[in-house]
Structure formats: C-alpha cells, structure tokens
Amino acid sequence: MNREIKFRGIREKYNSAWHRSIFRFGNLLNNNSIGEVGYDLTHYEYAKVKPETIGQFTGLLDKNGNEIYEGDLVKHDAWDYPFEVIFNDEKASFVCKLKTGLTQYIDFERLVVVGNIHESVVS
Predict the structure, then answer these.
(1) How much of the chain is in helix, strand and coil states, percent to nearest 5?
(2) Has this prediction a pTM greater than 0.85?
(3) How many other CB atoms sit within 10 Å of the CB of residue 71?
(4) Partners of 7 in the β-ladder
(5) What are the strands, taking DSSP E only, across 1-123?
(6) Higher per-residue pLDDT: 80 or 43
(7) Contact present, 50 and 8 (Cβ < 8 Å)
C-alpha cells in the first residue's frame, strides 16, 4: 500500500471570504508554505503557513473515515481521554501520546479525530 505524502498547516493570513478553512492541505514546498497543483495542472497554488502548525498525513483514517494528521487529538473508543498523534523516530511510525508523556501503540481504526493541538482544547 502506498501512502499519499501530504501535509497540513494553518495559514498565516486567513480570510473567511476567500478560504474554506484556516488549514491548508497539500505538498510541503518549504518550511513555511504548502502548495497544491490546480485541477487543470497549469498552475501551482500555495499559502504561507505557520511552521509550528505543519503536520504530516499519517496515511491512516479514523473509524469515521477522516484523515489523521500529526498534531491531531484523537479518542479511542475504549478510553475517555484524548491522545495526541505524533511521529516516533525510534519506532519510525505514528503513535499516540498522552498528556502525561506516555506513548501508546494502539489500533488507529478504533480512533476518532476530536480536534488538534493548534485549535482546540479537548477535555
């Protein structure tokens, strides 16, 4: 299975009249912009994003079919507290981390995305 390599980041400047989301999804052009090829493949659109908000797509979907990115807050259907999705260099894989710093290797198909570390506070 090939994983689509894409990123997400929060736009530096956001105008709700022009943009559908504060997030920009697509290819990482450099440390502060994310771009996406237009539908007609003749131009490249990009947006400056806050570098600290950039997260990579894990290649995984939650149980509702939503894409899971680094920095997402997820809940497991067996527990009532959120985990943060991070990349673990030692295991070379995406894992879930508790606020206490403990890392969990859990079944991503049993997760639901409930927010992200940049926008929401989940109890």
Answers:
(1) 5, 50, 45
(2) no
(3) 20
(4) 26, 56
(5) 7-10, 23-30, 33-37, 44-48, 55-61, 67-69, 72-76, 82-88, 93-97, 103-104, 111-116
(6) 80
(7) no
- Contacts of residue 111, defined as CB under 8 A and 6 or more positions apart, other chains included, come to 62, 63, 68, 74, 75, 76, 77, 83, 96
Q: What are phi and psi of 45, to 5 degrees?
A: -95, 140
14: amino acid identity, one letter: Y
pLDDT one-digit tens code per residue, 21-77: 788 888 888 778 888 755 555 666 778 888 999 999 999 999 999 999 999 999 988
**CA proximity to 45, closest of 57, 54, 53, 37:** 37
Q: How many CB atoms lie within 10 A of CB 7?
A: 21
Structure tokens at 68: 């899971």
Cα separation, 115 vs 119, whole angstroms = 7
Cβ contact 49:9 at 8 Å:
yes
- Exposure string over 27-58, b if 16+ CB within 10 A, otherwise e: ebbeeebbbeeeeeeeeeeebebeeebbbbbb
